[in-house]
Specification:
Distance between the termini: 14 Å
Number of domains: 1
Strand content: 15-25%
Mean pLDDT: 95
Shape: globular
Structural class: alpha/beta
Amino acid sequence: MLIDTHTHVNFNAFKEDGPDVIDRSLREKIWLINVGSQTTTSKRAVNIAVDFKEGIYAAVGLHPIHLHEIKVDESEVAFQSRKEEFNPQEYRELALNSKTVAIGETGLDYFHIPKDEDFDLVKKKQEDIFKQQIALAVELGKPLTIHSRGTEADPNEVYQDIMAILKQFPEAKGVIHCYSGNLETAKQFIEIGFLISFTGIVTFKNAKETQLVAKELPLDKILVETDAPYLAPEPYRGKRNEPAYVKYIALKIAELKGISFKEVAKVTTENARKLFNI
């Protein structure tokens, strides 16, 4: 058994075959958490989780790129972000559903800040909305699934900014999703009680730093995820990703650590069950 702790079968990339994708995952004994990025996808994540009685859960939140309207191209899927205000009551109601296990995807994204906007003003707004969602998670006793993407010039800055904010909320817990930072920073997140999650990036030949982090971190601090439809692992790189492919991420981590796939599956599943209370 495995748990894909961060996927988006609630996105339009799965509009035609979402139920089939989920069924395929469940047949392979892979559970999943569908993660919302704004109101529509958060509601859809909850509805899907309710429709599937076991093995399918939801996270609800407002992604930082949806605070402004931009065109985003993530290679596998292009989309238009939606300018949305954070509505605490609406997200609280979604979060109170018994199938909602986390708040997110929330966090900071400096990579996609439009060049014609004031960087510092956008950054401040992202921080404010992030803090509101952390407060909601703490209030409801739910973990956070945190997005973090820095600029090309300084990719580590965003991690340090997130760390500084999280330290203001000592009761907060959660996971740094799609981690691509260095080993030292990963250890700092673990020290404040957060887990580190790896996507298909860890299978890429040129992702040496991410592979080093996965190799060196304790297995009991690691989660696995697809971030589908994005970041398909080898041997499906460049194609639409799906939850069933999370096994390739677990296989790569097993290879890097020199341990069995069975051990990686067992421990990462235990980690996910404990964090998300499932």
